[in-house]
Design brief:
It holds the Pfam family Acetyltransf_6. The protein is an alpha+beta fold. It is built from ten helices and 13 strands.
Length: about 325
Amino acid sequence: MQHKPKHVVQSPEWSEFKNAYGTKSVQCGELFYTIHKIPFTPHFVAYCPKVDPFVINWEDLTKSLKKNGCVSINFDCPNILTTDTNYSQAKALVSSECTKTPKDTFAKNTVILDLKDGEEGVIENMHPKHRYNIKLAEKHGVIVDQAETLQDFDVFFQMLHDTAEREKYYIHSKRYYQGVWETLQPKGMCQILTAKLNGRPLSAWMLFIYQGVLYYPYGASSGELKNICHGNLLGWEAIKLGIKSGCTSFDMWGAANNPNDTNHPWWGFTNFKLKYGGKLVEFMDSYDYVVNPTVYSAFNFTNKLRWKILRLIR
């Protein structure tokens, strides 16, 4: 069977963060899931992102879900790629027990960059324009700092908040990101890199490191001085950090499914990520395992309506 590192959001440390944040995280065998209240009911739904389908014990899981009052569990984008040798086996296993979920939370596509050949290997496979832009940023005096203090975190979050306001998308509360930082950073699992010019923050990435994989879940930009390509240098310094930390791959977390569709809202950052030399990949479909079909159907109906309203507000 093809071996794959456990995803960071299926780690005991991520479960620790979730519990500290106030979202109950439950361990069932080798998997972790969180439980979420269905408003105005005594019921809950469970959420289990990036699980390895082959570690699921369906009997134990059913008992655990019922014990915690859950009507279903969402296996959001299980950690199996459509190109993995065990993809068909994983799909058959999950689809035999579950129903396809109405909506993915994680992006189904991502860009994965191979780091096994070190810095020289990455540079060799990188798009020439990216190599040029990295040197351009360095020529202009851009430097990249690694966050060490809560004040450094505050700089990151303020930029993230401003980016979300400017680009009109939802983010978590400051307490959420600070909880991630305070839980994972001391364990060497979370780092923040910030690109600066003369001490002025221009862009920043929060990165995760777990079981030899570097992740880029959250990024922010001031929107200023894009012409000096500080984002390109920031990405390169993230890659160097991953290699130094012993990572063999870089999961850039999310991407458009078609890199040639220039009308896709994610086309810009997908193209940016691909130019580092990574490959566009697709995860298997998301599935729900249902233990209370009646409440599950009612929940899906109201949740779909909720998302329609949120999109209209934005």
